[in-house]
């Protein structure tokens, strides 16, 4: 057999160098931590925050090849040609032609003399997010389902360095493939790390700081140019115009939901950090280097929506949530198993909101089809002022301040200045049932938001994933799961679903002004135009969804 002439098809390397900007907090976990400590983010050997290349490569592959069953089903040949594959329990496989380097986390796009980020993110700027599972029988925290994770704040930059190795014969196809990847990144389609369906991990390509260039190894001149780093750099926009992507992968079929609302009572989620003057403060997140804003995290919003979906389906079925063993012999493991059984009981809810796999290769389990993003308040608060609210003496004016100082002036106390941002201290006390007086040690204060305006709540329903998970989950159809989501949104608009914390103590009531749904272009009767929820529920497609929902509950076919 004749030896192949390598010069007939010289090697080409397509290189991308730039940045990804986080649009929401990001968590990529580290191993080997204390199980009782908050879940830590990954750091490299020099204690710098980073995203491992393996995590970034997996997210990029999933973004480009969006078959949700690709990991458990037949090999995805389109993905394997570039990203490689390994035969399970066998010698087969190929190496990836795409090399993704570790992504250091930085505050700015500058590079040092070694080509590394010049301004690494200070670990002191990490935020904390706490999540808790709520027992469906008792409304209290489920046993073993309270945990805290540290997250990288939004606005941070991730260094993106990616190489695609190809040959002259197939270079044009790979250029188009890379163009599509960059367009999806620029469109904000990459979700990275943990809890991506609960508000974390949204990123977008910083196209103004990203470029592409080619290296050709078919001649000595090309080799020396690659070693010197010579060659023209092409902007992302120009690259996409020159190398138009081919239709190798179908676009994600998604329904975008936007909920425009305003609070009818204080709406907040409690911060995991207590103050020294005010006991309970609302959760905030950094939106700039020197400013924060109140946030309803996607974890809390998704939990409220899931709880309502379970309430609807359990009511329709006449099914109670299973309870843990309360005979006194049940241990923590049994109570935790009872909570998992509550989450596993309803197939349509699992398809929408997800479920943990019980064993390797569980079909229809894993990440849900519904993504719920963080919701931010419109107000921004100076970071220094917010730090003062946590300190002792936040209710006292600085020494020497005049008594006529305006409440929002420089001589005002931190709490007085926060009133200008819509935050007011409220004191609460528990009453002793015997004496009728204040109970010992049960006086506490809350910094409540009043009169704030909030950004819309945004949801994204992945119809492709829904079709796969809903069909695999006890034959629950995708239309039935979509009908359940519409019922949840109907209850939200009707004011039956409070949001945030302390909803049984006068907080969390909301007034929904409008819910807009945007379906894909190929969805019959929608034409990719936003439709209001009430119009959709009265539209021509509603009877079909009603039949699908009833058939799902009855166990029949539509």
Task: Report on the architecture of this protein.
This protein has helices at 53-64, 77-83, 171-186, 220-228, 236-242, 298-317, 332-344, 347-353, 383-389, 414-419, 463-472, 478-493, 533-538, 542-554, and strands at residues 11-22, 50-51, 85-86, 93-94, 98-100, 103-106, 127-134, 141-151, 157-167, 203-205, 211-216, 234-235, 254-263, 284-288, 291-296, 354-355, 366-367, 370-372, 375-376, 381-382, 423-431, 438-449, 457-462, 510-518, 531-532. It is of the alpha+beta class. Strands 1, 2, 5, 6, 9, 10, 11 and 12 form an 8-stranded antiparallel β-sheet that branches. β7 (127-134) and β8 form a beta hairpin. α8 runs antiparallel to α11 (463-472) and α8 (347-353) packs across α12 (478-493). The chain is globular, with a radius of gyration of 27 Å. The termini are far apart. The model is unreliable at 1-6 and 69-73 (pLDDT under 50).
C-alpha Rg (nearest Å):
27 Å
DSSP summary: helix tally: 14
Q: What fraction of the residues are assigned to beta strands by DSSP?
A: 15-25%
**Strand runs, count:** 25
Mean pLDDT over the residues: 85
Q: Rough shape?
A: globular
Biggest β-sheet description: 8 strands, antiparallel
Quickly give the structural class.
Answer: alpha+beta
Helix content: 25-40%
Q: Uncertain regions: pLDDT < 50 for 5+ in a row? A: 1-6, 69-73
Q: State the end-to-end CA separation.
A: 60 Å
